[in-house]
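question for whoever is on the cluster today: can someone run the full assembly for these? two chains, 568 residues total. i dont have access anymore since they changed the login thing
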Amino acid sequence: MTFNRDKNILIVGLGLLGGSYAMALTRKDYHVRAICHSADTLEYALSHGLIEAGTTEVTPEAVAWADVVIFGLYPHIFKEWVESYQSYFKPGTVITDVTGIKGDFVREMQALLREDVEYIPAHPMCGKEVSGVENADDKIFNGANYLVTPTEKNTKEAIELCRDLGWVLGFYRVVEMDIDKHDEIIGFVSQLTHCIAITLMTCNTKEHLEKYTGDSFRDLTRIAKINDVMWSELFVANKVALLEQMKEFREQFERLEIMIAAEDVDGMRQLMKNSTARRKLFDK
Amino acid sequence: MTFNRDKNILIVGLGLLGGSYAMALTRKDYHVRAICHSADTLEYALSHGLIEAGTTEVTPEAVAWADVVIFGLYPHIFKEWVESYQSYFKPGTVITDVTGIKGDFVREMQALLREDVEYIPAHPMCGKEVSGVENADDKIFNGANYLVTPTEKNTKEAIELCRDLGWVLGFYRVVEMDIDKHDEIIGFVSQLTHCIAITLMTCNTKEHLEKYTGDSFRDLTRIAKINDVMWSELFVANKVALLEQMKEFREQFERLEIMIAAEDVDGMRQLMKNSTARRKLFDK
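^ ran it for u. tokens below:
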């Protein structure tokens, strides 16, 4: 089962990611329709040619039209949607998502889903500091990683289809990963970084800092403009892994405080050399 | 006393910053010479037209030629240089610098300097993750802040000259600031951010993280490639202010850990809204 232009693709939820998926797939001549709750959003997507058709009502016809359904919803809404409407799926439908946590969430979803519909989880590692379909942009996939996180319940065919989808969307890299390893890594590279940015932005109440900052502070706080509804949900959903990463970070940070207090220049230089060497691996 | 093309400008130290100063000033038709310890560096600066003349030997003639001397050296080398060679300055010379810490360092320097030479401290808030004259680039000043940090020992004329220099170099903003306030703010916006980046880059020893990261992690660790000689010196020199900022950051970070552990979604959302509002002030 490969991802090809014979498949009918339904996107549920036209936010920044759903909208960007629609844009990328429509531009590559796939058949793309959407279901979203806002009439304005739907009108925007239709008038900007992001989708060929769409509806704000979840109808059996709209859902059964699809061979592949991509969910661009917050985790708990995605789950509620499937609980409410899964009887509408056509047998053999493959569903996938953009959800930023996997682990227990995926286990619950696969447990509650009909036997004749397959959920292959994926996590596109990209975004913007703004949300909504009007910010949809298929360029966000360039240079980004697409994580496919199958479980033992997934078929080889659905995994392949989901990998294909990542490439079609234009991601820089498609990586397959276990759901629990996903949550551990995301806890570190994504959630921890957001926790740091929020903390840095709020730990000092001085006014007019923008007059004195260099690029470093701007870089470290770019993601401090944050969607509070989504991220608070993601933090709670990945609580165990995230708290472990936060603790490791905080302990290492305290070690640096101790070095500075002791004026341990050799220790600091060793740490900085290590930091420099590790960071160089990230230069593309 | 304004900064104009009649002044002879001597740059001591042709690293990234010294080289970039030379480039900017020479391109605007100022008379710029340099003293640096490496013959290769000097040759580079001459052959690339960054300076009109230069020497690797600190001679009375080379120093007395200058009306304005700009030091682009590490703090302790700057201090040693002045201790060794200040007898060479012509009376009335104004000296300034690029040093990233002020406070006690400035007090010591002004105390040891000849009475007929004036040191007006400045801190250009810009840089790159690479060093050396071959990376000199006068575009680093665009969009950046130039901090002038006078003390009660400085004259109105020297302060004005130093402010003019900031504008001539092409900085986005020239700000005047008390030396102790400087160290407190720099401890926060610059040194703390580097401490965070180093910590994030070294707190997790997993391999191949570069395959899984999104832009957030890259942003937060750009400055984790760091000049260990310079930054360890700056951290020690600003130990008191920096440790205070680190402690505030760490305590706020722990508060977020506690919120996540307690699944305090309202608390997190409030924090994120605050973070978002504060960060918006930084959008240029």
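summary bc i know u wont read the tokens: The beta strands of chain A are 8-12, 31-35, 53-55, 68-71, 94-97, 118-119, 122-125, 145-148, 173-176. The domain at 8-177 of chain A is CATH 3.40.50.720 (Rossmann fold).
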